[in-house]
Structure to design on (767 residues):
């Protein structure tokens, strides 16, 4: 395509990382092409936020077996409300090495997974960027500190709208100073707050990218609780609803959908990237687009896949992989089954509408600092869910049938409680992803990945055991009755949809892929700004940090353009 | 994670949780002092609205109706009959042909097994047994649910029936709204949260 123009920046992906990068670069005047693998979404047609289960043919669950085998952590995502949004694994498979497990959630559309994300928006803390130096000497520090990222957390919070509380600041869990007011908590959440207080454990308002009041031209949450199926009024942040509308009218921003990127093009003379190749999803023909810089923000797996598929004579094991670490050090939270039960003190109370802002309003930030003789590294957070939901609740677990069984369900319905833990995931070279050596390709003919990932490493097993104990302790102190449960092995990488690593940042080009500005050490005009750049994976949620890092990297890139360094 | 939803799938999450473990038995001893199912109303004489099952034969469908109405009876609030749970089961099992045909086999085999048990005990198929005998047989089959040391060859079928009955009932308008009282998925101008003084910290 000789007529293809030369862009300043080609941004690959339009989700959390790509949406922010495109926004930062285009609003600073750079000529941006954003390539999105999926289609445009129309919230009015694609989000079924106000539909009850009985309004669906199969009550929302689809035909028995319709979605095939869904890996751990994906069963609840793909429903009749959402099955047109997600990629169904059996229909576009990826490869697993023998014994490996990986849950890869793909939502190929403008906005990516921010269309249906969990909305929890906590910042990483100072100890999370320098765990080796400040915590325990294990692993690696980031090449940047909390202070480097803090201004960008602030900007992202202002841009997307986060509700929470600065008053609740807890150790190593910094919060913004200008958040929207927090949401009111439910009865069960208050009981946990009281119970945890007896143990000296702090329960804090959960920072949520959901509006508690009108903000930036968007209406506040109307408490339908259906955020997992999208939001019909943009009360929660998504790149689709919040960022794309700010860009579409700009003449220097172009969004090209249905354009999955295949490789990065390299100029053999200069050694630098000169654009990308991408597939037109409709015709499956390959095209080229040219840019002075390329920002990969396609999600952890996809960005790594593009780099690995861009191998050439100079980079035979993948572009930017002179360190040999590309695709390695993959991480995920240490996650497991939630503990379920009920509050006897809430049994039989009148039913209330407990949907609220969809998510929990409170949570338990990490509290286990400085514990001596602990068998694990780092720490955990606990999340909990209480009250009346869209299902029978804990009473259904009881044996029997008939009126007394039905009565038990009714009695315990408003008393439901469950609590789950998320531990820091550790980076290991042995947890990695590669291009499938057996030649698996995706629906566009692009070579697909194979995962070599094992969540059951000794530190994960150790922290898991203590997390079960911690949850039991807090629930009991809150007066909850806990159902008997079985301890399980840690859930697979990817099961929390918080996969990270594989292109990690670092100051040493021999042990990392990216520098402190998310540029490839090997090729400074290729940036990677999604979660693949993560060096550590603390117990906190990932999306706000993805956006802050993408903001920071794009801001620096724009500055480099202004200085004529690109 | 936080993406974990308190949704209707908690039906499946909770079902069977307490069955078959010693700790489950201890838990139930504390929380379930009296036997369940003792006040079940027979549904076999109830009026029958016309429906042509898509999967089950008419006599099988009659048994499915009785089973679902035994598990979730109509009492002070509507039950499986009003929610037409048997029709839900028929529709879902019919729809299983494409991706999960084994579910159809489980239902056919289970219903035949139930009739065999009923004939052995009462000399007639399940649907023709007295309401008292139907309930007694279901109690017998479900014994492993309350006693982990007990076994019954039809227990797996009982689990399937109970699972789909609870799922079908509490995902229906009758079950979720009328019987359970779910008030959510609404449009509110504010969310007060907990306002009880006794719950405040």
């Amino acid at each position: 395509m000789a007529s293809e123009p030369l862009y300043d920046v080609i941004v690959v992906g339009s989700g959390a990382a790509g949406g922010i990068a495109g926004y930062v670069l285009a609003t600073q005047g750079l000529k941006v092409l954003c390539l999105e693998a999926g289609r445009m979404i129309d919230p009015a047609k694609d989000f079924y936020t106000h539909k009850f289960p009985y309004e669906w043919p199969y009550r929302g669950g689809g035909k028995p077996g319709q979605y095939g085998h869904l890996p751990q952590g994906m069963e609840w995502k793909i429903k009749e409300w959402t099955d047109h949004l997600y990629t169904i694994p059996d229909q576009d498979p990826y490869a697993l090495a023998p014994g490996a497990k990986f849950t890869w959630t793909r939502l190929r559309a403008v906005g990516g997974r921010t269309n249906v994300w969990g909305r929890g928006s906590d910042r990483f803390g100072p100890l999370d960027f320098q765990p080796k130096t400040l915590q325990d000497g294990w692993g690696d520090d980031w090449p940047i500190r909390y202070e480097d990222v803090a201004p960008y957390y602030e900007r992202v919070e202002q841009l997307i709208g986060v509700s929470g509380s600065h008053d609740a600041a807890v150790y190593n869990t910094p919060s913004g100073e200008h958040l929207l007011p927090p949401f009111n908590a439910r009865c069960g959440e208050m009981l946990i707050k009281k119970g945890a207080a007896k143990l000296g454990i702090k329960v804090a308002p959960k920072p949520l990218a959901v509006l508690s009041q009108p903000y930036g031209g968007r209406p506040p949450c109307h408490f339908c609780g259906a955020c997992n199926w999208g939001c019909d009024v943009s009360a929660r942040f998504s790149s689709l609803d919040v960022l794309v509308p700010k860009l579409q009218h700009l003449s220097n921003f172009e969004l090209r959908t249905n354009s999955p990127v295949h490789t990065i093009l390299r100029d053999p003379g200069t050694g630098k990237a000169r654009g990308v190749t991408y597939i037109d999803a409709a015709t499956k023909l390959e095209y080229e687009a040219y840019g002075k810089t390329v920002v990969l923000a396609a999600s952890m797996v996809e960005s790594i896949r593009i780099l690995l598929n861009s191998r050439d004579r100079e980079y035979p094991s993948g572009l930017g992989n002179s360190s040999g670490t590309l695709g390695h050090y993959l991480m995920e939270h240490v996650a497991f089954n939630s503990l379920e039960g009920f509050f006897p003190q809430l049994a039989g109370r009148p039913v209330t509408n407990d949907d609220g802002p969809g998510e929990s309003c409170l949570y338990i930030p990490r509290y286990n600092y400085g514990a001596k003789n602990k068998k694990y590294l780092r720490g955990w957070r606990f999340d909990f869910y209480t009250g009346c939901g869209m299902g029978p609740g804990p009473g259904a677990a009881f044996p029997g049938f008939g009126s007394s069984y039905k009565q038990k369900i009714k009695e315990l319905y408003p008393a439901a409680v469950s609590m789950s833990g998320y531990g820091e995931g550790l980076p290991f070279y042995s947890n990695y992803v590669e291009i499938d050596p057996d030649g698996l390709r995706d629906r566009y003919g692009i070579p697909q990945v194979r995962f070599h990932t094992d969540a059951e490493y000794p530190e994960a097993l150790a922290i898991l055991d203590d997390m079960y104990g911690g949850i039991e302790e807090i629930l009991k102190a809150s007066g909850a009755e806990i159902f008997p449960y079985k301890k399980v092995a840690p859930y697979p990488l990817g099961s929390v949809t918080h996969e990270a690593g594989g292109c990690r940042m670092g100051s040493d080009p021999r042990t990392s892929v990216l520098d402190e500005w998310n540029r490839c050490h090997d090729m400074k005009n290729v940036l990677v700004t999604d979660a693949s750049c993560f060096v550590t994976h603390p117990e906190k949620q990932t999306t706000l940090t993805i956006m802050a890092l993408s903001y920071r990297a794009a801001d620096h890139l724009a500055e480099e353009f202004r200085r004529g360094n690109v | 994670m936080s993406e974990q939803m308190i949704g209707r799938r908690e039906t499946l999450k909770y079902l069977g949780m307490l069955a078959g473990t010693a700790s489950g038995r201890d838990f139930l001893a504390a929380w379930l002092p009296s036997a369940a199912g003792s006040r079940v109303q027979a549904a076999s004489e109830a009026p029958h609205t016309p429906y042509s099952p898509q999967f089950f034969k008419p006599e099988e469908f009659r048994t499915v109706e009785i089973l679902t109405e035994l598990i979730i009876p109509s009492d002070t609030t509507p039950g499986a009959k009003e929610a037409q749970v048997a029709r839900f089961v028929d529709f879902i099992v019919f729809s299983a042909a494409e991706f999960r045909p084994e579910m159809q086999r489980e239902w056919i085999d289970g219903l035949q097994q139930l009739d065999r048990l009923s004939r052995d005990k009462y000399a007639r198929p399940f649907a023709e047994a007295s309401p008292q005998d139907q309930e007694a047989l279901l109690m017998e089959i479900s014994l492993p649910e309350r006693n982990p040391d007990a076994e019954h060859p039809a227990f797996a079928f009982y689990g399937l029936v109970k699972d789909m009955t609870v799922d079908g009932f509490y995902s229906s308008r009758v079950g979720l709204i009328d019987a359970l009282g779910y008030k959510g998925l609404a449009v509110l101008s504010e969310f007060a949260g907990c306002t009880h003084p006794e719950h405040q910290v």
